[in-house]
Amino acid sequence: MHRLHPFDPDLHLKVCLAKHLEQSHHMECNICFESFKDTKYAFGIQENCNHCFCIQCLRLWRQKDEMVNYRSCPVCRTPSGDILKFPLWFTCSLSKKLMFACKKRTLALEKYYRYVAY
């Protein structure tokens, strides 16, 4: 059951989305320092780190061949295997863990069904 509007799930979703968008607009990329007020930017969310980056900057960072720690956070160097492109910033670590679990599950299913005979 939805806590904000227990009898109206659409209104609950609308209020929660507006709250998350407002929180996301105050964030800025730690590489290019662009604000996320502009909707053309998506967050590059790392699995093991909470530093904020736009997906373009994080992908460029990871593509550099000379970087020894290219799969780590550009700020704190925490190893982080996966990144997730998402339009909102996660303030809750549980939500972040759930999104990465869903991504891994989806990739595993795609890999499995690629080899299943129909």
Account of the protein in words:
This protein is mainly alpha-helical and 118 residues long. It has a domain at 9-90: Zinc/RING finger domain, C3HC4 (zinc finger) (Herpes Virus-1, 2-Layer Sandwich), CATH 3.30.40.10. The chain is built from 3 helices and 2 strands. The protein has helices at residues 9-25, 55-63, 93-114, and strands at 43-46, 83-86. It has a two-stranded antiparallel ribbon with strand order 1-2. It is globular. The mean pLDDT is 75. One of its GO terms (biological process) is protein polyubiquitination. This is RING-type domain-containing protein. Keywords: Metal-binding, Transferase, Zinc, Zinc-finger. It holds the Pfam family zf-RING_2.
Helices and strands, with pairings:
Layout: H1 9-25, E1 43-46, H2 55-63, E2 83-86, H3 93-114
Antiparallel strand pairs: 1-2
Q: What's the Cα radius of gyration?
A: 17 Å
Number of E-state strands: 2
Q: What is the topology, as strand order, of the major beta sheet? A: 1-2
Q: How do the SSEs run, as a string of H and E?
A: HEHEH
* Secondary structural class: mainly alpha
- Gross morphology is globular
**Mean pLDDT score, rounded?**
75
Q: CATH fold name of the domain at 9-90, please?
A: Herpes Virus-1
- The CATH H-level homologous superfamily of the domain at 9-90: Zinc/RING finger domain, C3HC4 (zinc finger)
Protein name: RING-type domain-containing protein
Keywords: Metal-binding, Transferase, Zinc, Zinc-finger
Domain RING-type: 29-77
GO biological process, one term: protein polyubiquitination
